[in-house]
Design a protein that fits this description.
single chain, alpha+beta
């Protein structure tokens, strides 16, 4: 993963800073709606944090790199899921699979 430094409230921050602690959900751009995934993670007790990149150079670079508005990342930095929108049912299933809580029944 490439690292980009951006400024947030006068402090330089790396785009790699959110990784390594729980499940960061990158919400990229003004149109990103992380609510369903955040709610599903809270219900499951999964440590998900929303990292919003609403505008600026970091948002532009992340949008270009991931090509989606929402990017759910595992604690080891690998992308677990990405999409532009998600409904509540799909969000619950994504959280179950990503956190290893999914049933193997179909």
């Amino acid at each position: 993963m490439r690292d980009w430094t951006y400024s947030r409230a006068e402090n330089a921050v790396s785009t790699l800073d959110p990784f390594g602690r729980g499940y960061p959900l990158l919400a990229i751009g003004e149109e990103a709606t992380p609510g369903p995934l955040a709610e599903a993670a809270a219900e499951a007790g999964a440590p998900l944090r929303v990292e919003a990149f609403t505008s600026g150079a970091a948002a532009d670079r992340l949008r270009e790199a991931y090509e989606r508005r929402l990017v759910l990342v595992r604690p080891d930095g690998y992308v677990a899921w990405r999409g532009d929108a998600v409904d509540a049912g799909t969000a619950r299933r994504v959280v179950e699979v990503v956190t290893g809580r999914a049933s193997h029944r179909r």
